């Protein structure tokens, strides 16, 4: 499957829809407008790729709806070349959006099938600079810390301390927090020992789980 004029037109409509819903940073909308979401969803779901809704990607996981992807990217509020840790690579779509923002991306996926799927998707669409790892998201990637930003694409019952410890002073974690429904939370590191939190509305994510499968 290729990225046709029809797909690009549908993507422009999606970007217009997102811009009407929230005053996103223009660079976020540009990134959403560049990434061919239809090449990251399961076969047979192409017709739904540019609707603002989550879709199945296998392994009982979903690709977040575009509004959620845009919001988490917007809330990172980082600069080009900043180093970002993504927890939950999934199919690689959010990873591609982060790369379009010009970030240096390190991403962890605990599901082996999705880790391989993301590798294939990102390579096939030309996003070859992400550093992908098969592992436990709760552990983070201490060997590459600190990170200017950390984005968690699954619902955490609490903010993992190991992730907070891998954040640079002045950096931020964007994480949906809650055991069932989640509240989008931004955790800012103020100094070596203190953090502050801000919340940005209710969302629904698949749960963040330990280990790898």
Task: Please provide a written account of the structure.
By secondary structure, the protein is of the alpha/beta class. The protein has one domain (5-203): Vaccinia Virus protein VP39 (Rossmann fold, 3-Layer(aba) Sandwich). Helices cover 30% and strands 26% of the residues. The protein contains six helices and nine strands; from the N terminus they run H-H-E-E-H-E-H-E-H-E-E-H-E-E-E. The strands form two sheets. A seven-stranded mixed β-sheet has the order 5-4-3-6-7-8-9. A two-stranded antiparallel ribbon has the order 1-2. A hairpin with a 2-residue loop joins strand 1 and strand 2 (61-63). The longest helix is centred in the first third of the chain and has 17 residues, at 5-21. It is globular. It starts with a helix and ends in a 10-residue tail after the last strand.
* Strand fraction: 25-35%
Report the order of strands and helices: HHEEHEHEHEEHEEE
In round numbers, the mean pLDDT is 95
CATH class: Alpha Beta
At the third CATH level, what is the topology name?
Rossmann fold
Name the shape in a single word: globular
Query: Which percent range fits the helix content?
Result: 25-40%
Structural class: alpha/beta
CATH architecture: 3-Layer(aba) Sandwich
The low-confidence runs, each spanning 5 or more residues with pLDDT under 50, are: none
Separate helix tally: 6
Count of beta strands: 9
The main β sheet shows up as: 7 strands, mixed
Strand order of the largest sheet: 5-4-3-6-7-8-9
Over the alpha carbons, how many angstroms does the gyration radius reach? 16 Å
Q: Looking at this structure, what is the CATH superfamily?
A: Vaccinia Virus protein VP39
Q: How many domains make up the 3D coordinates?
A: 1
Q: Termini separation (Å)?
A: 29 Å
